[in-house]
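MOLECULE: protein
FOLLOWS: sequence and fold
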Amino acid sequence: MSKLSIEPFSLHVSDLVLEDLRQRIRRTRWPDQLAGIGWDQGTELSYLRELLAYWADGFDWRARERELNQLPHYRAELDRLRIHFIYQRAQVPNAIPLVLTHGWPSSFLELLPLLPLLTDPAGHGIPGPPFHVVIPSLPGYGFSDRPGRTGITVQYTAELWDRLMHGLGFRRYAAGGGDFGCSVATYLGRDHADSMIGLHLSTLDIMPYVGPESRPLSEAEKAYLEQNRRWWEGEGGYKAIQATKPQTAGYGLTDSPAGLAAWLLEKWRTWSDCAGDLESRFSRDFLLTMLTLYWVTETITSSMRYYYDDRRLRPVGPKDFVRVPTAIAVFDHQLLPEGVPPRELVERLYNIRRWTVMPRGGHFAAREEPRLLAQDIAAFFQSEDNFPGTRPHH
């Protein structure tokens, strides 16, 4: 394997780009909204107008940029793509290497609260081993390159991450994440099992095979799958667009800060455990840091193409099984109102060694409940009973 090309990276957005953003916000042409509908038809007008006023005239990107530049950023050349990642080592050399992956409509920013908790768990009162943590940005997201071709799937990304982790010097490592990050970790476990210590997943992003060659469904599985089907009927319009015509949607979202904010924030509100109050879970500055990241890197269209490419992946079949020891942390508000999948459904695809139903938190667990998530990750890898025949450390 050729030596991995890695270079330090720092964030800097030009003044011209930031001033253009502010001017576009101020010139927004707003749609109307029917009285009394709130968020029923999408992002509420009054909330978005107030947020964008702050984005234009109160939000301090430079302060966020300085904070982010305190972290160890790098970019690595992988298959002619420069991939951005955070790489923070624990203070002990034999810590467990762990790659964590975000999803859509998120970014590496979501996972940052886990860094201190996992690199120094003892210092934060968390029992368990320390981790060397790697947080990459998916291809086409943030400061990773926008791919110039199709075929950038979660399976392809797993190949890149395996090269990245080996290139950083880790023979074996662990993986985790939610949303697309769950899928990337799953393909790491399926296709690179010999390199894997274990998987920790905070969402169920790949549905197990339940076709004719599988065992009969339990009543709990039938009820969950029906609830899942109804949810997608009411909420899946974004995925249908992004999986078929991301280019068309990209024109408006790349040109309009209001359009970009409305498209992304509606999902953060719907998918999180915020009871309809988005800023009860996420600070206004965090939300605008995320939106600014999408804006200044011009990556909303390339981020949506993930859906287009993944639609062409071979579906999970009856012989697919991830034998790597796996932990599932099921957060209380995981898209579905009562979103806890039956364990027997998930065990069709994964070698489940730990199953934790969390009392709160939603789709963006690393940002909503970082301590709960870090505790569960540490507890899973602390127990050697979860890893028969091997030891869960590097």
